Amino acid sequence: MYGVIHFEVFLLTGILLNLIPGADTIYIVGRSVSQGRTAGIYSVLGIITGSLMHTLFVAFGLSMILVKSVYLFNAIKFIGVIYLMYLGIRMLLDKSNLAFQTGASVQPNKQKIYMQGLLTSLTNPKVSLFFIAFLPQFINPNASSPIPFLILGLTFTTTGFLWCLFVAYFSSYVTKTLRGNNKIGLTLYKVTGVIFIGMGIKLLQIKAPN
């Protein structure tokens, strides 16, 4: 099918891989738990947009530049580390979160959360490396067009989107009562900041491919 082989195996494997918690899942859970369902959904949209862009990068060979350039790899990685650290530290130091301090029903900044999710995905070079290593296993070696990469990338992203939506809804639902308590809600917000810092430290440990 358009240069794709063993699609059923890819679909099953992709679903199983999506179920394994990764940096994206942790980010979505953090947003959903600390700021509710709307924040979780928009973080999902940002992450998925980033995944689609990674798919395009791989399909058209742009990610190979990332693989071959250690300097570019490390530059993108450090941008991601600094960004996640910034988000985490800002959440830890923030004392003006009215949604938790007053109990008011304050809607999160949707555009801001979306962009943060997008940047979190784009500044993680591990995503591109995963696509480069995983997708070719299900592509006919004689295929010369980007179509099979697009098909597999879109399939993987779609299953990931459905799973991430479930994670966002479930996480926000089970912690709704906790967020209603000002002190607990603010604590969840601070814990999310710690999670972001941890994601930054984990990203820092990723090594450029040899």
Characterize the structure shown.
- With 210 residues, the chain is mainly alpha-helical.
- The chain is 78% helix and 0% strand.
- The chain is built from eleven helices and no strands.
- Helix 2 runs antiparallel to helix 11 and helix 3 crosses helix 8.
- The longest helix is centred in the C-terminal third of the chain and has 28 residues.
Number of helices: 11
Taken as a percent bin, the fraction of beta residues is: under 5%
Main sheet characteristics: none
Radius of gyration: 18 Å
Backbone structural class: mainly alpha
Elements, N to C (H/E): HHHHHHHHHHH
**Number of DSSP-assigned strands:** 0
- Distance N terminus to C terminus? 33 Å
Morphology call: globular
Unreliable segments of 5+ consecutive residues: 97-105
Helix content: over 70%
Query: What do the pLDDT scores average to?
Result: 80
Q: Notable features of this structure?
A:
11 helices, about 210 residues, mainly alpha, about 0% strand
List the helices and strands and how they pair.
Layout: H1 7-19, H2 23-35, H3 37-59, H4 62-68, H5 70-93, H6 98-101, H7 110-122, H8 125-134, H9 147-174, H10 176-180, H11 182-204
Helix pairs in contact: 1-9, 2-3, 2-9, 2-11, 3-7, 3-8, 3-9, 4-8, 5-11
